[in-house]
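Step 1: inspect the first sequence and its tokens.
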Amino acid sequence: MKKYAVLLTGFLCLVTSFISCSQTKYDLALKNVALFDSKNKKVLENKTVLIKADTIAAIIDASADFVSDEIVDGGNRLLTPGFIDTHTHLMQNYTSTGESAPEYIEEYNYDLTRGLMTQMYLAYGITTIIDMGQPEEWIDVTLNWQQNPSPEYPNLFICGGSIVSDENRRQPQHHIEVMNPEDGRKKVREYAKKGLKHMKFYRKLRKPDFEAMVDEAKKFDITINTHTDNNVVTIDEALEMGVQNFEHFFTLSPSILNYDVHWKAMNEKYGIQMSPSIDEFAAHMVFFFSYIKENPEFEDKLMGLFERMAAKGASLSTAINVLASSAGKTDFFTSFEYFPIRRTPMVDYSEEQKKQLDDAFEAMMLYVKKAHEKGVKIRVGSDCRYGGKAMLHELLLFHNAGIPMEDVLQIATLNGYESMKLDQDYGTIEVGKKADLLLFDKNPFENNKNLLSKKTIIKGGKLFSHKKSIAYDLQDVIIDEGKDKGLVWFEKVNNSNDYASVNKDELKQVVSTFLGDGKVGEAKAVLGIFKENFPNEIMNVDGTILTNGTYARLRNKEYKEAIAFYEFGQANFSKSEKTLPLAVLITMLKDGIPEGKKRFDSIKDDKSYIFNEDEMNGVGYLLLQLKKPLEAITIFELNVEAFPDSWNVYDSLGEAYMSAGQNTLAIQNYKKSIELNPDNEYGKGQLKKLGVSWQ
């Protein structure tokens, strides 16, 4: 009997060994989780999710056996798909103003730029972001990131530049003009050839250009996202063209009423001014919802618009936290623009107006809920610098407005992925989908504040490990408590296990942020930390920040501040780009016109200075605006000396002489300008004013 027992035992061991060897071995298992089914808005208890490489390979009952290299015990905690923010701008990550973002993403800045995406989004559970407008010079780099995702960073999908029609004004660096419908079609083909699958049409894209580009985009299956505003193209018109994705909840109002009429009427009704700050602009957008609610005709139109959008399967992004910030209705302040750096909105309202704004915000959130209930696909689009944290607070606002938590989680996941046509890989927890997942420490179904709770983040099938940035937290401490307390805090937490090692590029980014906001003392304090920790390194910031910061102070007639800001930059960032026109201008303001001329002569052939005709001309016109005609004339004369074959420099010099009452010299220069450019009708008109006819 013992012999048979031994044989039987051996046979069973052999069978058990064979079964174990034949089982699939997984890379990661999330054992015993409460799985959120974002498609059906249900929670499936006691499940185990098995991951192979970056893909969900199996979903089994928690009691079933499996083999995996790594196991996370879910403890029946909530597991959701990774969140998606459908309206971001990488430019907003850089500094307090997008205008300070670099013209190019240089190779040495790749890790910093992608690291900012992680810091701003992935650390909060946003595993995918859509960039809704960037400089075209960035596209090759960011498209490569789109095509080669990494577990260390959020998935990135880009739209290229924000497309606008030709306008007679200087465009922000991420706005791309098309001259006419055919030029618009050409731009679509250009983006399609590069491999872009999304495009952004901005609010001043005229209807003929808009229509042609939508038609062309259909040929390449490019998803169009449009910010319809200013009564140029309405939502209804875009719907009829086949567009389904609309940006920002506040853009509903111009599609049901005429801003040319009702903007003024709304301002008069609430006694507010014409948006003197970006935050008051956001508040204006909130006020419009009270204006609509108090007018049954407009409210009926809005409800009808929701129904038509739902019938067409349209989606609508939010930016609700920015609007809530302007109304003081969120615990986390955000803005469309962070210049100046602040924690509270720049609004100047009476107590009565604040109460009216409270009512307007309630009306807006009621309409968010109504839009959702009528079938408009709401998706999160934070459109602000700290998008990850802002998104979580938007979700709180949705729930506070009465939207059920299961719907809130669907908005954060499937709605965005479906709208962006990314749901074949993301947005639901299903076999074959990418393993971008969030395991909540605390259940948001039990308390909506748990949306803000700690999460285990799985990105690309890998457990995401993230230590906080001491540089970026230092920035926040300095903003909140001042530079002296910031320095004390830094010494206290440096080398703490909670933080990653001090990163020189992140310190540089903080310095750039403070410089972009004009906070020289704060920048100097962080620069001191950089020098202490990296004594053999030289910090250089983007020269655009230094140049634009100086010009901004000059435009405000803050001459001493401008000179101090410029000299701080020159003394501390010797390798940053510098421009000849600004160097000459600063010398002229500080030491007089003769010294400015000497400075020009000494550096005009120095290749370390950027020198172009347009900036020099711009300096001349700035001096005219500042009521400094002699200095302006000198700058224009130097520009003529440098670019003697340019008709435009003579035209500008003629204008400067004319403004100074030196008409003979004005006539000479206008004539020279027209000789070089016979089509200069402006110059001919100026000569006519001076009593000279041109034949």
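Step 2: inspect the second sequence and its tokens, then contrast the two.
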Amino acid sequence: MARNNNKSQDELVFVALGGLGEIGMNVYLYGYGPPNNRQWLMVDLGITFPGPHEPGVDVVLPDLRYIAAEKGSLAGIVITHAHEDHIGALTELWKELEAPVYATPFTMGMLKAKLSEYGRGVKPILNEVPLGGRFNAGPFDIEMITMTHSIPETSGLAIRTPAGLVFHTSDWKIDPEPVLGEPMDQAKLEALGKEGVDTLICDSTNVLRGGISPSETAVANSLTQIIKKAKKRVAVTTFASNVGRVLAVARATHEAGRHLVVAGRALHRVIEVGIDTGYLPKNFKYLGQEEFSYLERSEIVVMLTGSQGEPRAALSRAADGDHSDIKFSKGDLIIYSSRNIPGNEKAIGRVQNALARMGCEILTDSEALVHVTGHPRQDELRQLYKWLQPNSLIPMHGEDRHLRAHTKFASENGIENVVLPEDGAIVRIAPGPPKIIDDAPVGRRYRDGRLILPNADGPVRERRKLAVVGIAAVSMAVSRRGELLADIELVLDGVPTRTRDGDHMRDVVLDAVEGTIESIPPGRRKNPDLLRDAIRRSVRAAINEQWGKKPIVKVFLHVVE
């Protein structure tokens, strides 16, 4: 589609509220119209996993205040596929937006299953779109283009406006032999190239790797051979949403003459949706985890959740000896049919070490073909460029190193205009070459138990500090004149018990408290706020002098009449 050459104020812009410079939390906005009156389209609304600097957090969610303030102008939310980093925040955050949601049948099935389990009464406006379907949302003409990835019905989006045509790839790879679903729709991609793609917004996750990605069918064949040769129990952990991998493991189990056992709520959910949408056969057979103990070791293949070391997932609980039904023994084979998501390495290593101590054999993708990426390597990127022939490119979905490498790679492969934005950068796509023109507020929020907290809220920040410096709590009763009436109560958690010279840290703190009280003139001790603050500062300084770290200090001052 040709660019709009009239002199109106209408322009097409792109802004990411998540997904640039990070793996996960994909939230992208396209805006069309004059700067003060744009209509918006949201693509995906995902989560990411907390890092070590976010202790106690269950899930990280995007900050939507920029678009929530203009939710009346949000024409729709299009979900490209059912991975959690693209769909996971809808249950918590849809009420902030109240826009219609568009998705293909399998993705819609996964969303409905998630809403029924975790939705807490949220009832989004849901619109199911057929594979390859085309529909309008406000000024946006959206066509779903079938791509191949590690989950069925991943769709790239051809987004047409009077200002130009954008192709948003979503996650993708070129897989001519997917285990489930159709291959990538090459004919439509080539047709888009002839129509004229103004800007390509493209997955960058695997840009650092040359060549092409192996097919899911190759992994399925490899898993079959590995399971056939195994002597004892076999356990396979993978991303629960990878229905093709679930089917591959089930087929391999059957060929090896074993029984498939499934453990983990997320796996049961995806199997149900896979059967309902026709990606798994109606007679798909498997046993529940309660059947595990009744089978001989050589008869079992068990699929479990927990490939990322999630502490309450089935594999983690089994590794800790905490699972009610799943138990492993020396010689059992544990196959990690997955990749490590950046940030999860320590959690995964902890589980693998626990399994190794049991005497289990652990097989990962560094030792055998048990997993393949769902993202494009360099030769696949070149092929997509050839089909689409875009005028411009914006890299997305990747850490900073991936985005920067993709910028360089695209330029070296003939794409003239490449822009490298960060989350929050507003990029004008048309008219004219892409250019960063403004910025939007972005951030992170936390699902912490049953609550959603802003990034700057105290609990997570305090936990982060507690993890490093501990806490000193001082409780004391004083008269209205500031006289100490009873022994000082002291709790030190996460603080060393002794100094470098071997003295008790409690004595150091008690001396600091008593010395502070004595140093304050009697007339000023009557001010409880002054007394409390002086004790807090003196305790913190005394511990810092001995330890070299400043703990969190809480002073509970009880004034007795």
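Step 3: confirm your contrast with the notes below.
The chain has 15 helices and 29 strands. Residues 1-7 have pLDDT under 50 and may be disordered.
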